[in-house]
Design goal:
With 247 residues, this protein is α/β, with parallel strands linked by helices. The chain has one domain (3-244): TIM Barrel (Alpha-Beta Barrel). The chain has helices at residues 15-21, 44-51, 69-85, 103-122, 140-150, 160-165, 171-178, 205-214, 231-244, and strands spanning 3-7, 29-32, 60-65, 89-94, 126-130, 154-159, 182-187, 189-190, 195-196, 220-224. The longest helix has 20 residues, at 103-122.
Length: 247
C-alpha cells in the first residue's frame, strides 16, 4: 500500500507547525521544499535538535538547481545532509529551459545524473528526477530518451499537474508506460490555469492512482499541495479526498 506524505510551501513562520503536526493530520511523511531546509544543510545536528529524528519528517528533500559545477556542489551538500538526517530521497528539479535541448543534450544530462545517483546511493539516498513544465524532461519522448540513458541510478518523481500543464492528456497511459522507473508520486490537481486542491481541478486523479496500482507501485503518495489554500485546509481537505478514494 502507498504511504501518504505531504508537501506545501508555507510562510517561514508556519514551517515548525508543518513539521509538528503532519502526523496528527494523517500523513506519514513530509517532502520538504528547498526553502524549508536549505539554510540548515550545513548543520544537520541542529535541525535534528529542532525538529527531532522522525525519519518521516525528511522522507524527501526537493531541490531546484542546475547541473553546472556550482549546482552540483550544492546537490552534493544536500545529499550529504539527506544522509545525515535520514532522508530516503532527494528529488531533483532541473533548472534548465527545454528550448534547444535535443536528444544528445538529454543523454548528456542523464550521464551527469547517473553519476550523481550512484554517489547518492553510496550514502544510502535515492536520487529522483522531478519534471516541470518547461524543463528538459517534459514530454513522453524526453522521458524515453532520458531514462533509456540514465540506467537504474535515478528514479522518476511524477507530478500529475505538471504532466497536464505540459500537454500530456492521457496521464494514466503515461503512468503505465513509465511505471518501471516511477519511485515517487506528487499528486496535485490542475484546472488548466491554477494548481488546485485534490478533487477541485480537472484531472482524473482516481484513474491515475488506479493506473499506478496496476504497475505495482507501493511508494510514497505525496500530496503536493500548492493551491492557495491554507496549511490547515490543505492538510484537512487533501486527507478527506484521499480517504474518500480509499487512500
Amino acid at each position: 500500500m502507498m504511504r501518504r506524505s505531504f508537501s506545501k510551501p508555507v510562510p517561514a513562520g508556519e514551517i515548525d507547525r508543518l513539521v509538528d503536526t503532519y502526523r496528527a493530520e494523517g500523513y506519514e511523511g513530509l517532502q520538504l521544499k528547498q526553502g524549508q531546509y536549505l539554510d540548515q544543510v550545513a548543520d544537520p545536528e541542529a535541525v535534528l535538535t529542532r525538529w527531532g529524528d522522525d525519519p518521516g519528517t525528511f522522507s524527501a528533500l526537493i531541490v531546484f538547481d542546475t547541473l553546472r559545477p556550482d549546482g552540483l556542489e550544492r546537490l552534493h551538500d544536500i545529499v550529504s545532509f539527506a544522509a545525515a538526517v535520514g532522508s530516503e530521497r532527494v528529488v531533483f528539479c532541473h533548472d534548465h529551459p527545454r528550448d534547444g535541448v535535443d536528444a544528445g543534450v538529454l543523454r548528456g544530462f542523464a550521464g551527469i545524473l547517473a553519476l550523481e545517483g550512484m554517489a547518492a546511493r553510496d550514502q544510502g539516498v535515492t536520487l529522483s528526477l522531478h519534471h516541470h513544465f518547461g524543463q528538459p524532461v517534459m514530454m513522453p519522448e524526453d522521458f524515453r530518451v532520458f531514462f533509456d540513458a540514465v540506467g537504474d541510478t535515478v528514479g522518476l518523481t511524477v507530478d500529475t499537474a505538471h504532466l497536464a500543464k505540459s500537454g500530456i492528456d492521457d496521464i494514466p497511459a503515461f503512468i503505465r508506460e513509465f511505471g518501471s522507473v516511477i519511485d515517487n508520486l506528487h499528486l496535485k490537481d490542475y484546472d488548466g490555469e491554477q494548481w488546485r486542491l485534490l478533487g477541485e481541478g480537472d484531472l482524473p486523479l482516481a484513474d491515475i492512482l488506479a493506473a499506478l496500482d496496476e504497475t505495482g507501485y507501493t511508494g510514497w503518495l505525496c500530496v503536493d499541495e500548492e493551491s492557495s489554500a491554507s496549511l490547515d485546509d490543505g492538510f484537512r481537505l487533501s486527507r478527506a479526498w484521499l480517504e474518500r478514494n480509499g487512500r
